[in-house]
């Protein structure tokens, strides 16, 4: 009987210490980016903008996650008699993370057209 009690205690100790040694892995939390907004009052600043940075920002997203690229142009009134006057302008492009290249190219194309309009007016 003493032998069974000793064996039971030894077995329970081995089991207890075995479970104490198991490591719990920390939960890795991945944050995702769903919106990116460029805000400027000068189109010339966009000529130096690193468009590849946008792709890197969204690379951890799920390919089916919805994302939004936005642009805000704020112009302080200087001459209201200009031929073409752009006050404040905002536009957004929305799509899936897997379409980031297409969305970025569309944003670049639209901004270049707007920049041409703005510079013609000066």
TrEMBL record:
Name listed for the protein in its UniProt record: Uncharacterized protein
Organism annotation: Urechidicola vernalis
Lineage: Bacteria, Pseudomonadati, Bacteroidota, Flavobacteriia, Flavobacteriales
